[in-house]
């Protein structure tokens, strides 16, 4: 089958940044389904893993968001059958979704929303899982607590995670949702996603919060440049507040967080599948709740760009957009 991946650590512009491969069609393990891929989205993790040598001698097939139809199921699979339209983000430890077919653990998938097309649905899984786990598992915000006096600051509101995190916080909690953006088009996008306020991350965050009359927040989601904003985040957090981050600061000194008794959390949605945690099926349950919320009209897709079919050229374009830092929402490729 056709697939796209890499055989070594690469940078954009190199002849083998990504390559087209012909590999065997996967077979379903006992708890796997095999999915015929119809649409994928591209995430920062794709570009980060591309810059690292694959383990062993086999090429790494990238891609960690997908929509498609189940074509085969393992003997222990009970929740899905051939013909089901599903979406998921899979596992970073297994071949990814930039391929005609992919084997994925049934515990990580859910039925795709009926009211979204393939491109719209492919925009959601990885970022929705990241945002849900960050907000409700790491920060400990309670789903449905609508009378909260607290506020959430999302640093990087126009990206994929920020776009769905804004919606989850606005729709499922009573938090005041503040996002950061710096360009007119990203400010407009954050407002479209439901932010109560949008502030400029080119200026000190604590000064921007004071400008809108909210000098301190209970929660901060550090989605990008968290290390650069660390001092302002400490000043902005109320005592006993919490920071949860997903990016990769070169170093991060948490000692300044001690005086206010602040908590610091990491969110990495691949942790459950990598370590086969006892609650790994929670990811499938989360995606099932996302589907229900989308079908009820409470959440919308975060799709912004469709670059065409799943080809080598279009995947390279998507990787370049990811690395530019100019992307808004999610970028999707559809069909072979």
TrEMBL record:
<keyword id="KW-0479">Metal-binding</keyword>
<keyword id="KW-0521">NADP</keyword>
<dbReference type="InterPro" id="IPR020843">
    <property type="entry name" value="ER"/>
</dbReference>
<comment type="similarity">
    <text>Belongs to the zinc-containing alcohol dehydrogenase family. Quinone oxidoreductase subfamily.</text>
</comment>
<dbReference type="InterPro" id="IPR014182">
    <property type="entry name" value="ADH_Zn_typ-1"/>
</dbReference>
<dbReference type="Pfam" id="PF13602">
    <property type="entry name" value="ADH_zinc_N_2"/>
</dbReference>
<dbReference type="InterPro" id="IPR036291">
    <property type="entry name" value="NAD(P)-bd_dom_sf"/>
</dbReference>
<dbReference type="GO" id="GO:0008270">
    <property type="term" value="F:zinc ion binding"/>
</dbReference>
<dbReference type="InterPro" id="IPR011032">
    <property type="entry name" value="GroES-like_sf"/>
</dbReference>
<dbReference type="Pfam" id="PF08240">
    <property type="entry name" value="ADH_N"/>
</dbReference>
<dbReference type="GO" id="GO:0016491">
    <property type="term" value="F:oxidoreductase activity"/>
</dbReference>
<feature type="domain" description="Enoyl reductase (ER)">
    <location>
        <begin position="13"/>
        <end position="333"/>
    </location>
</feature>
<keyword id="KW-0560">Oxidoreductase</keyword>
<keyword id="KW-0862">Zinc</keyword>
<protein>
    <recommendedName>
        <fullName>Zinc-type alcohol dehydrogenase-like protein</fullName>
    </recommendedName>
</protein>
<dbReference type="InterPro" id="IPR013154">
    <property type="entry name" value="ADH-like_N"/>
</dbReference>
<dbReference type="InterPro" id="IPR051603">
    <property type="entry name" value="Zinc-ADH_QOR/CCCR"/>
</dbReference>
């Amino acid at each position: 089958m056709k697939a796209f991946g890499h055989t070594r650590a690469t940078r954009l512009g190199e002849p083998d940044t990504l390559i087209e491969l012909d590999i065997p069609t996967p077979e379903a393990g006992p708890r796997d389904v095999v999915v015929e891929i119809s649409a994928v989205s591209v995430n920062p993790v794709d570009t980060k893993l591309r810059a690292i040598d694959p383990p062993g001698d086999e090429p790494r097939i990238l891609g960690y968001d997908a929509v498609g139809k189940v074509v085969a199921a393992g003997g222990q699979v009970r929740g899905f059958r051939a013909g089901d339209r599903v979406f998921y983000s899979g596992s970073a430890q297994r071949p990814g979704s930039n391929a005609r077919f992919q084997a994925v653990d049934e515990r990580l998938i859910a039925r795709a929303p009926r009211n979204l097309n393939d491109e719209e649905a492919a925009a959601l899984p990885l970022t929705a899982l990241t945002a849900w786990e960050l907000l409700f598992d790491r920060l400990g915000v309670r789903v449905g607590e609508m009378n909260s006096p607290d506020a959430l600051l999302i640093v990087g509101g126009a990206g994929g995670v920020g776009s769905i995190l804004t919606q989850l916080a606005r729709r499922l909690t009573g938090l005041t949702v503040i996002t950061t953006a710096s360009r007119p088009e990203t400010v407009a996008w954050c407002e479209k996603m439901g932010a109560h306020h949008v502030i400029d991350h080119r200026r000190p965050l604590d000064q921007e919060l004071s400008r809108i009359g909210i000098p301190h927040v209970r929660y901060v989601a550090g989605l990008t440049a968290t290390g650069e904003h660390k001092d302002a985040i400490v000043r902005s957090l109320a005592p006993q507040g919490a920071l949860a981050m997903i990016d990769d600061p070169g170093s991060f000194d948490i000692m300044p967080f001690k005086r206010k008794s602040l908590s610091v959390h990491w969110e990495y949605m691949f942790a459950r599948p990598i370590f086969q945690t006892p609650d790994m099926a929670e990811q499938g349950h989360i995606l099932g709740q996302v589907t229900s919320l989308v079908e009820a009209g409470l959440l919308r897709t975060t799709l912004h760009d469709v670059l065409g079919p799943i080809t080598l050229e279009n995947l390279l374009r998507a990787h370049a957009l990811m690395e530019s830092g100019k992307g808004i929402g999610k970028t999707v490729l559809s069909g072979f």
